[in-house]
Amino acid sequence: MRSVESPRSDRGVWLCCGLVLGVLALFVDKAFNVDDTLFLMLGDHLRDDPIAFFDFDVNWYGTPLPMHEVTKNPPLGGYFIGAVRALFGEGEVPLHLAFLLPAGVVCLATWRLAERLGVSPGFATCAGLLSPAFLVSSTSVMCDTLMLA
User: Fold this and answer.
1) Chain centroid, CA 38 distance in Å
2) Going by DSSP bridges, is the β-strand pair 64-66/57-59 parallel, antiparallel, or unpaired?
3) Of residues 106, 118, 122, the one with CA closest to residue 16
């Protein structure tokens, strides 16, 4: 049986998510990382040819190899990148702003999971999502945060 959420609990979740997203928003104009280029290449390919998601070559290790041998990630992140770049252009800011969406989903899900487990949701959410590992991976356009969401 699901309990009714109190207005204070709802305020807390939005405050906590606002804090996390506010910290991440400081990095929306950050340049792409070196490792981001593999995901950007996949996104650009999927924008142009969404059916054959790994059917192209990349020169990642010094020689051209098929993308399916280079990447170890599912194509969902590439589809997300391709859609954002098709709609809003190829700059860093639109893509980093779009990646705030999965970070917000992780924030809400962490809060709700902590509530179900009976621990302080504010502390659990802030401790997890303000940790260096989450903050660093959430300021890139790789699929870590997207897969966690």
Assistant:
1) 15
2) antiparallel
3) 122
Give residue 4's pLDDT: 47
Write out pLDDT tens, residues 21-69: 899 999 999 999 999 999 999 999 999 999 988 899 999 999 999 999 9
The two structure tokens encoding residue 54: 């790994």
Q: Are 14 and 112 in contact (CB under 8 A)?
A: no
Q: What is the pTM of this model?
A: 0.85
Measured distance CA(143)–CA(74) in Å, rounded: 8
| C-alpha–C-alpha distance, residues 100 and 55, integer Å | 29
Q: What is the 3-state secondary structure (H, E, C) of the chain?
A: CCCCCCHHHHHHHHHHHHHHHHHHHCCCCCCCCCCHHHHHHHHHHHHHCCCCCCCCEEECCCCEEEHHHHCCCCCHHHHHHHHHHHHHCCCHHHHHHHCHHHHHHHHHHHHHHHHHHCCCHHHHHHHHHCCHHHHHHHCCCCCHHHHHC
